[in-house]
Specification:
The chain has about 200 residues and is α+β, with helices and mostly antiparallel strands. It is built from five helices and eleven strands. The strands form two sheets. It has a five-stranded mixed barrel with strand order 4-5-6-9-8. A two-stranded antiparallel ribbon has the order 7-11. InterPro entries: DUF4124, SNase_OB-fold_sf, Staphylococal_nuclease_OB-fold, Thermonucl_AS.
């Protein structure tokens, strides 16, 4: 049995214990390899949509970071799986996309995150799914919590919305308090600082 099939079977077996839902798509490429993905499909591909739980099987695999979108969103691949990750518990300055100027330190956050994990093997600790059908996860590289590192460097704040019940926010709030005290990264703006949450409200898509 191929590794991707084994992982999917594991996902199906743990439905009773995992409540995080994610739209998973399955398709076969021109080489006869079956893929599973929770992101947009390749152009022109026909796929079967499988609405299933995202299980702890993800936590048992190594993934390679293939793209860094901004300071808190990346894409990973591994085991014939292709996932978009929203880094849980943190909120990095908004880049603004192609039509709007982003927040101060947004490009710095993206650059640093890219330096930390782009092209590297990482492990994930997932906490279900969030907006835009992205998996919420802590990312670990060489035993280092990358989510926490972004907070410590003043390139992200603790997420101001609801956090997963099984996530301990204490290390994050402590790291943020220390970063603010040191005026690290975006905290150097002082009173001019604007949270990503506030910026999004003022700059709707």
């Amino acid at each position: 049995m191929r590794p991707a099939i084994q992982i999917l079977v594991t996902i199906l077996l743990v439905l009773s214990v995992s409540h995080a839902r994610c739209d998973v798509y399955s398709w076969i490429d021109e080489n006869g390899i079956r893929h599973f993905s929770n992101v947009n499909l390749p152009y022109g591909k026909k796929a079967t949509q499988i609405s299933e739980a995202v299980s702890a099987a993800i936590d048992q695999s190594n993934f390679k970071v293939t793209k860094v979108f901004d300071g808190d969103t990346v894409q990973v691949q591994g085991q014939d799986l292709d996932f978009r990750i929203r880094m849980v518990a943190i909120d990095a300055p908004e880049t603004g996309g192609s039509k709007k100027k982003g927040q101060p330190y947004s490009q710095k956050a993206k650059k640093v995150l890219r330096q930390l994990i782009q092209g590297k093997k990482v492990r994930l600790k997932q906490y279900g799914t969030g907006g835009y059908n992205r998996i919420l996860a802590e990312i670990f590289s060489q035993g280092r919590n990358i989510n926490l590192t972004m907070i410590s460097q003043g390139l992200a704040e603790v997420y101001r919305g609801r956090l997963p019940k099984n996530l301990d926010p204490a290390p994050y709030t402590k790291a943020q308090a220390d970063a603010r005290r040191r005026r690290a990264g975006m905290w150097s703006q002082g009173k001019a600082y604007k949270s990503p949450k506030t910026w999004r409200k003022e700059n709707p898509r």
